[in-house]
């Protein structure tokens, strides 16, 4: 008994050292904080998975020869010893600076087994034998383990530092058999059965931890978003364990899929070293720095994906010079009755800023009016547009999506080969393009969202978004959809 208590005390001592985490210098732009409640939830899943793996496991056969008074020398064999059921009464998880400790105490387990014996003695020279079944019950099973979680080149490494399992009370119920057999089982076998249970549980813990480690190791370091961009989900720095939470930092920036160089020059900003912690008692909080969005803006801009040719408008007549014969006589005179299209291009990386209530977006565009004549595309005028929009963040599945709303815009005629255009005209064309074409298109893209770093088998539940410039935080509970133990290596949602 003493070793197990020592062990549990050790777990707690080991963890109760000071909780000030020292952060590495590499900066993460996405942080995940798993709260007490989240850890408890994870612990329960892990225990369920562990119990599922232990139940029905068969322990090795035990064989002993014992001298039984008045009976003789009995060779007793216990076989098909299996653990049929485990009930966990109480468990806890604790984090400390150097590791995570999980303790299960007072668990009970039911075992079934077969027995057989043969006795030979000078009294009974022929020898007698018998066989039957029995059940055993572990009334107080204690299990404790501590693991360390570290960052290994961008992925997490889970290391089992210590584990122990102790059976404190075992009772046996014999079906059939003789009274002496019962006594033999209690005296000579109970300890061996208990040890076999302890060994089986310890072995499953080792297996389980390495399965989890393989799983963590197999998580991708980048998640492709589309042909253009990928999200860097490499872990930066070691997890910070405090007595109430685990905090993980992820690079979180978007990079071009074909880009060789990592994006440079993003900083969280001076004086901001701590993420806003949502006081709500949710399981996890994921914080995204506005640089995540800024990096996306740069990647899509640099890849020339922010330009579109528009040859369809809800008001299709606008795309024919005939429609303009009175308003822009010169256009109609030079190109009578020709179709037109618009070349819209974003002229600098959109500026994105998290504010107290939304994500503010500023975009500068050039809208080039083209005339299509005899298979040729002839640019005739260019309008430059600056507009600002408000983007409301939303959670869709496990993705962070957004919905843009136009706030205001200003326009300017950049150049024209068809004479001066009226300001009113420019503004109404721009307004129509923004409202009927560009914003709806951008929203269709934004609605796909970016995946939040959640394991595949988990879903966000009752997520709440908080704006804490320059961070957006998503606080959420999660639900478990699958069964890790039986599945091979699930990955992030992509
Ligand atoms: C379960 O735990 C509670 C308190 O933690 C204790 O009172 C109760 O007796 C335990 N039940 C069993 C079956 O061990
Ligand atoms: C556990 O991990 C931390 C970093 O997270 C490390 O500093 C510490 O040395 C590790 N402890 C052991 C015993 O491996
Ligand atoms: C386990 O054993 C106990 C006592 O022997 C019994 O009351 C209980 O029903 C058993 N549970 C299962 C699932 O067999
Ligand atoms: C992803 O982030 C890690 C950690 O910050 C960094 O070392 C790595 O270079 C980044 N990868 C790319 C492709 O930018
Ligand atoms: C649209 O305009 C941009 C900027 O003036 C230019 O680089 C691009 O080639 C044009 N696209 C088409 C399809 O004409």
Automatic annotation (TrEMBL):
Gene Ontology MF term list: lipid binding
Keyword tags: Glycoprotein, Signal
InterPro entries from the UniProt entry: Bactericidal_perm-incr_a/b_dom, BPI/LBP, BPI/LBP_pln, Lipid-bd_serum_glycop_C, Lipid-bd_serum_glycop_N
Keyword Signal: yes
Signal peptide, first to last residue: 1-21
Superkingdom field: Eukaryota
Residue ranges constituting the Lipid-binding serum glycoprotein C-terminal domain according to the UniProt record: 278-476
GO cellular component assignments: extracellular space
Family annotation (SMART domains): BPI2
Keyword flag Signal: yes
Name by which UniProt lists this protein: Lipid-binding serum glycoprotein C-terminal domain-containing protein
Native species: Phaseolus vulgaris
């Amino acid at each position: 008994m003493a070793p197990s208590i020592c062990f549990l005390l050790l777990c707690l001592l080991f963890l109760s050292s000071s909780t000030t985490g020292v952060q590495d210098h590499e900066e993460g732009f996405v942080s995940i904080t798993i709260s007490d409640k989240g850890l408890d939830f994870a612990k329960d899943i892990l225990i369920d998975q562990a119990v599922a793996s232990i139940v029905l496991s068969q322990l090795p056969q035990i064989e002993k020869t014992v001298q039984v008074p008045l009976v003789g020398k009995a060779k007793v064999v216990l076989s098909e010893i299996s653990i049929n059921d485990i009930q966990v009464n109480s468990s806890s998880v604790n984090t400390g600076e150097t590791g995570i400790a999980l303790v299960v105490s007072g668990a009970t387990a039911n075992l079934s087994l077969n027995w057989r014996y043969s006795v030979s003695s000078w009294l009974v020279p022929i020898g007698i034998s018998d066989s039957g079944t029995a059940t055993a019950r572990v009334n107080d099973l204690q299990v404790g383990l501590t693991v360390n979680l570290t960052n290994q080149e961008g992925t997490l490494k889970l290391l089992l530092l210590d584990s122990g399992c102790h059976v404190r009370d075992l009772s046996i119920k014999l079906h059939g058999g003789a009274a002496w057999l019962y006594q033999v089982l209690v005296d000579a076998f109970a300890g061996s059965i208990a040890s076999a249970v302890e060994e089986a549980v310890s072995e499953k813990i080792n297996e389980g931890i390495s399965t989890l480690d393989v799983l963590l190791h197999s998580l991708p370091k980048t998640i492709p978003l589309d042909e253009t961009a990928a999200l860097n989900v490499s872990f930066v720095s070691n997890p910070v364990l405090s007595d109430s939470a685990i905090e993980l930092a992820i690079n979180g920036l978007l990079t071009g899929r074909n880009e060789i160089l990592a994006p440079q020059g993003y900083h969280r900003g001076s004086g901001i070293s701590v993420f806003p912690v949502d006081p709500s008692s949710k399981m996890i909080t994921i914080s995204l720095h506005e640089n995540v969005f800024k990096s996306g803006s740069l990647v899509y801009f640099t890849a020339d994906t922010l330009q579109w040719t528009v040859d369809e408008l809800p008001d299709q007549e606008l795309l024919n010079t005939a429609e303009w014969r009175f308003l822009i006589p010169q256009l109609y005179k030079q190109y009578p009755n020709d179709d037109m299209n618009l070349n819209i291009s974003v002229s600098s990386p959109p500026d994105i800023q998290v504010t107290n209530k939304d994500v503010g977006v500023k975009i500068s565009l050039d809208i080039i009016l083209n005339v299509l004549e005899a298979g040729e595309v002839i640019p005739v005028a260019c309008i430059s547009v600056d507009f600002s929009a408000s983007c409301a963040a939303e959670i869709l599945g496990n993705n962070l999506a957004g919905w843009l709303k136009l706030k205001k815009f200003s326009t300017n005629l950049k150049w024209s080969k068809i004479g001066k255009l009226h300001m009113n005209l420019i503004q109404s064309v721009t307004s129509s393009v923004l409202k009927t074409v560009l914003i709806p298109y951008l929203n269709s893209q934004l609605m796909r969202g970016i995946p939040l770093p959640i394991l595949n088998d988990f879903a966000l539940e009752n997520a709440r978004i908080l704006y804490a410039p320059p961070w957006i935080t998503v606080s959420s509970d999660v639900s478990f959809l699958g069964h890790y133990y039986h599945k091979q290596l699930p990955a992030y949602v992509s």
